[in-house]
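User: Here's a chain of 728 residues. Predict its fold as tokens.
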Amino acid sequence: MPGMHQDAQSDQILSVDRLSSTVRALTIILVVTSASWCRPTLAEARQSACNRIERHAIPDRSWCQRRFASRGGDALRKEADARIHAGDFEMAEQALACATEAESERDWRGRYETMRLYGVLEYRRERIDAALTGFECALEIAERHQDRPGIAKQTKNIGAALLRLGDYGGAQAALERSLAIQRADRNPEIGSALNNLADLYRQQNDPETALHYYREAIEAYRRNGEAIEAAHTLETMSVIALDRKDVKTATGLLERALEDYRSEGHRPMRLRVYAGLVRAALIDGDTRTARRWSTDGLALSAEHGLMAPAALQLQIARLERAEGRARAAAMRLRGALEALSPNDPDRIALLEEHGLALADAGLHAEATIALREAAETQRHDAQARFDRQIAWQRSRFEAAERDRTIATLAHENRQKRLILWLGAVSVLALSFAIGMVLLRWRQRARVEEAVRRARYEEALQRYRSEADALQIDRRLLRALLATREEAVCLLDADGRILAANQMACGLLHDTESELVGRPLAERLALADREVWLRVLDGIEDGPCDAMRLRTINERTLHATVTQWEQDAGILLLALFEAEAVATGPVRREVATVSGTEDAVAQPAEGQDSNAIAAIPQPEARLQFRCDLVELMLAAIEHWEISTGTSRIELAERSRLWRIGIDDGRLRARTMERYLALSKLPQNPRWRDVLRTVYYVLEHCPIDPALHSQWQRRVDSVQKYGRRSALLY
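Assistant: Prediction complete.
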């Protein structure tokens, strides 16, 4: 039994297993230690974004106390925020430097807010790469302390910075991460993330997706009471509508934004809306409406002492040029350009419009100068954007190189320490390995002896099980054989005696109890044993002629062998004394035994003729034989794949097929005949094929689909085989 093998091996190699466990534990410790020493930590392999921030000159504490009236970190950060909004970047930088000096080690929220304001400051300075570093540092702090609102806010800021640098893929990933966190947390301030994501799609020339996110942003702003931000988003949507020449939609959006700004009392933003309304009217060719909107905007500016924004001045100049007042437009644009900062994004449009107004006024030389200046400014602006992108990429590359250098040095240092440590344990490991080899060699011999004993016990147990299983059938067989007047034995496919009547026991000079379970070849002379084995190999192809056999007692017998109609795996052996019978009776007995199938082919007296129609047809028999071959091939293939052993091992373990030696190697010749339709015996042992399949199914896991396919073939074989057995 397989369990006996396992028990025997377990009892014999228990000490070796314990020693092997010790070896494995030491090996794991060695590998883990080696890996941990050779692999640099994250802090060594990657430089923190906070360490990449350029440190500004930090005044001493006394200067900070004098300059900012001894205020703490929170007050200094509020001061810096106010200075950033006022455009006083130098004072904002000093306030942040003093806030950094005043921070404590455990005040991570203060550190986070300082780095966030540092990023905002650099962003307002148009130093986008430095701003990105500040936002990344703030993100690291938030992630370290699992501050989800902080993570959402800084990923949004990082997305905005990457968008300015032209990294659309990185910007989209950062913004979508921020949006996902805010959606999950139901953050009411989700509007800014939606607005930034819409800006991204707008720059990627996907206005439909951009408008979808703009609408979501407006809803979020209004839910959170941020009317100014909602109006700003409406302005942006109007720009998309104007680019599409959809004046009606753009005008409706701008009027809604104007109403929001008016209700919130935000006058500078109303001036920007007036600029959009003038542009919409000019696109529609309605100069009268454009004049009305421009007059309202200039009146608001004059009433409250506000400077008209460049966008409004540009649209009014275009209106004047459309009305034929090119010189007035040129004067207006010249004044706007003088009041505009050199880096203002509206400067290029003003210069181009100024050139066109001068050309319409007939001042071609001045127009050429203005247009050249516009082109040069545009080129300079594009070059500045390109330089920012290159600087950002260079800084990232240098940071990556620093990280790689740190990781390489750390790896080399750990390797050196590891070599020294390995040298200390190598001698112990070598001696331990030698001891293990010697112990394994001695143990293997004991295991092999235990396996041999276990196999012997397994064989004995199998024989006992077979004997118990055959007790009922053997009584039936004895009863059947007792009715025969001649000497008859029943054999299995390997030639072992299953039952013998009294006449056969007398001819073989032994009792039935001594004969059953033993090969008939043991009762034959050495010279006839090879002949008998050849007869067994060929019996499946049809009944053989009468043969002459000599027993070990030098007694000569005539014998005929046929397969039992009920089971092709059982052989019917008839024995006759050579001196007592003539050739004729023997041949007649052979004909009687071998002619059973012919006798069945004709209906007996009183037999229903429908019984003949139920005899399996040639097509059914061919399918039956094909199924046997396919089942055998599939079982052997699955056995070899699952166990990694050969068909010889299957034949040996299942004990269903005889194994012989052919040209010095083991072969299961009987099994091999079932692997090809051309070699399949005429009367195959289909029950043994099914037993082989069941054995493989019992010992090898199988896919359910393949199992169903096998089962269909098994059912087909059983149906044909049982019907054939009933007929015969």
